[in-house]
Amino acid sequence: MDVKLKSRREFIKLAGIAGIGLGAAACAVAAPVAPSPTPAHDDHSAAAATPEVTATPVDMDAMHEAGVKKYLDNIGKDAKFYGNKLDPKNVDGVKEFNITCSEIKWDAGGGAMADAMAYNGTVPGPEIRVTEGDKVRVIVKNDMKAQSTAVHFHGQAVPNNMDGVPFITQPPIKPGESFTYEFTAKNVGSSMYHSHHNAAEQVTRGLLGAFIVDRKDKSKDPAYDSEYTLILNDGVGGFTLNGKGFPYTQPIIAKLGEKIRIRYMNEGLMIHPMHLHGLEQLVFAADGWNLPNPYYCDTLNIAPGQRWDVIVTAHTAGVWAFHCHILNHAESAHGMFGMVTAIVVK
Amino acid sequence: MDVKLKSRREFIKLAGIAGIGLGAAACAVAAPVAPSPTPAHDDHSAAAATPEVTATPVDMDAMHEAGVKKYLDNIGKDAKFYGNKLDPKNVDGVKEFNITCSEIKWDAGGGAMADAMAYNGTVPGPEIRVTEGDKVRVIVKNDMKAQSTAVHFHGQAVPNNMDGVPFITQPPIKPGESFTYEFTAKNVGSSMYHSHHNAAEQVTRGLLGAFIVDRKDKSKDPAYDSEYTLILNDGVGGFTLNGKGFPYTQPIIAKLGEKIRIRYMNEGLMIHPMHLHGLEQLVFAADGWNLPNPYYCDTLNIAPGQRWDVIVTAHTAGVWAFHCHILNHAESAHGMFGMVTAIVVK
Amino acid sequence: MDVKLKSRREFIKLAGIAGIGLGAAACAVAAPVAPSPTPAHDDHSAAAATPEVTATPVDMDAMHEAGVKKYLDNIGKDAKFYGNKLDPKNVDGVKEFNITCSEIKWDAGGGAMADAMAYNGTVPGPEIRVTEGDKVRVIVKNDMKAQSTAVHFHGQAVPNNMDGVPFITQPPIKPGESFTYEFTAKNVGSSMYHSHHNAAEQVTRGLLGAFIVDRKDKSKDPAYDSEYTLILNDGVGGFTLNGKGFPYTQPIIAKLGEKIRIRYMNEGLMIHPMHLHGLEQLVFAADGWNLPNPYYCDTLNIAPGQRWDVIVTAHTAGVWAFHCHILNHAESAHGMFGMVTAIVVK
Known about the structure:
Three copies of one chain form a homotrimer.
Chain A: H1 8-19, H2 23-30, H3 57-73, H4 80-83, E1 89-91, E2 94-107, E3 113-119, E4 128-131, E5 135-142, E6 151-154, E7 178-184, E8 189-195, H5 199-202, E9 208-214, E10 226-233, E11 240-241, E12 252-254, E13 259-266, E14 272-276, E15 281-286, E16 289-297, E17 299-302, E18 307-313, E19 318-324, E20 331-332, E21 335-336, E22 340-345
Parallel strand pairs in A: 2-5, 4-9, 10-13, 12-22
Antiparallel strand pairs in A: 1-2, 2-3, 5-7, 6-8, 8-9, 10-11, 13-18, 14-17, 14-19, 15-16, 15-18, 19-22, 20-21
């Protein structure tokens, strides 16, 4: 999936697809912006349902519009949002990945740098992807100064000593030390890797990432044309999708008729019911296991630790809002923020 | 479904159905009421699990009993609780509905008037109901002074420019302005309509309602004799069902053997696992889509944004408590409150 | 299921099963313990995700290790954790159980005695177990001084006057009084019994227990070799499994290949998504009703009031961590606490 939007101009063109014959709606996007007395709200950590009693409707609308404009302007400018993958080295038939833990400052999008912990310098860490049956080696170096750590491959049935639970299956990886995880990837589908040491802090601060195992026999899954992973979090940087809060999230961009696989992964401490406008979600896998009977919904509740895989068929053109339906994870009087993005169907 | 209870006397008769031959239990309902030193607790916004250390058991029981008495006395006195429907005009084959948004005071039942926002003056707004394939027009007038708004038809696959997301699919509807939504109702089942502008505030304050699309071929749904919608909310007025908190909620009243369809809709910010006593729930639809394999439960978890449809067969006579099982959404030391009602089977 | 571990030595032997050929991991469990400057954290009520900024990595690791050591040392020392069952008297073909409610001090494991309310002196109360079709009598004596009470058999379809809702189906059971519940057990599977009077306080303080109805025709359930009940709670004693917080919880101990039935019951006010490492969960029953199509997962979300039954096949040896994946219900900077246990496969 390498379709990208380069400019707001192109987006407006897209939005126009849906707006043909409906001038007001289509033009709204391109309408001149009223002077905004208040800068767009960039503090994604505030789940503010509090009304802004002193703001006029014009002020409030301007703040909302400014957020949407930022989102549109930012499209295509964060290639890592869906594409932060880690290439393995092939060492004697083993796929070897190197992961370094470090203390960093993380910007969820608005410029506020939060104290984070990261795998290879990003939140989430890079996606690790292998194929069913692959021998996998993950060498984890702890470059953090303040804390030991350990990595759990959440969703993978590994030998017990590779399970990543300090003092149960291994000693913690102390600052400056390394630990090598080695196992055969057995569980197809959407798994995660994350810290299992002081995890309420370390995972919420960013030590997390997707661990995906491609199935050998793809005929056992529903057909799809493209795929995207959305990691939900409510820790560092506030309410985030793939480490970013709206307007710094990226849309999924699809052709009419395209079948999109979305992998939801909840690495936060709260549930997040993800609502997609206009296009239904066919829920077909729980924690990597295909359901015996997939079912449709528009709002899928993802609890902490869960992964759910869905197929979305892009059957109608337009810009479809896509957000957590706990509304104060997604919008305040200052405009949309946090767990909001869109599917754009051309 | 037009069965109504007019008096507490009749209720006791109903309760008596279950109590035949079991004097103590049946009589409890009709027993003389001890003088209550404390008025029944009407503050539905308090989720008080705090013990009332100074209350004696007699005091506490009296407060609980007073609440139940109010509930019984109130039966049949709120025809809008399940029956707040909006009649369309038929305009050249289009079903046309008029919705006006305004700032009101809303009483969830105890007399405390809360600052609310409402469609046509009620929380929830009136039910909009059409049939699969109908052409629908909803003319939304914004009579609010403080805020612009927009309406999203949550669960309906509409043309993108009818999707109700300001600055993405339309300009916000400013105070004094109107916007006309027009689409063909494609998605059968239980949808909702609600604000999608500053929604964390506007929806929690009351800009929400049921949007129901009847299926043409009813043989595709399980059979049922009657149906009720329960909109769950945790915003204005505290924990509410259809805008009211116990004891101001209304029971569902059914004949023995009746098959009842219940449409749950969560418009709040929290999950609400709804527990029904004595009668099982057959869960058959998620967000309007029938499940390939319906399943039974007694406690159904409804997350924000979700709708679930169930069938309850009234196989046993009696008054069956029906409430959110997050217990501090349903009961305090002052008695039951909030998300509590009953199914009464005669 | 009477397999028990008597000592930490035996546990290390078990852990060694998984560690063969992987010295570092296996030895970690048996490694000499560094002097711990801080006693292990026993305050289970603290959901502390707060970093301990002044603790060194060595200090923090020592606290974590001390917790795991306590857990290992405690294995087999709490026979009631999975085995607190109430024997009935057979009275003229009726299975009669006696339950006494009283105010007690409850120790969730760390020595802090919390003000609790209990059935027969334990939190949870003893398991009541009967067989489908049994006539059941439960005589409830209220020996509490401060509050009346009533018992609801959550999940059982009982005659209405046996449903336990004060002022709806019975008078409350006042201090010093008794009430006799009598019904035929119709609903097979995992039910609960708990207070339905001032329940937000009484249930969170401990008036709760398992009510299990064995199916006559066991061929209708998936096959299993052993079974365990895990009652989740977030009231008295903090985050607990069967009334205890880690490190005072007990593991499930299984032979390689053993099929384990786990009955989850949520008696708290919060969701708890239970994650099991290394072994998949086959979800086959909701609230006692078998699902038409069981499905696999590794993280099962259990909402308040729900019961879910799963089968776990112990296909791989080792010590598999098993915990709520809302991470601040399971771990703090002081180490694991609360809703954490393990499945040990020999």
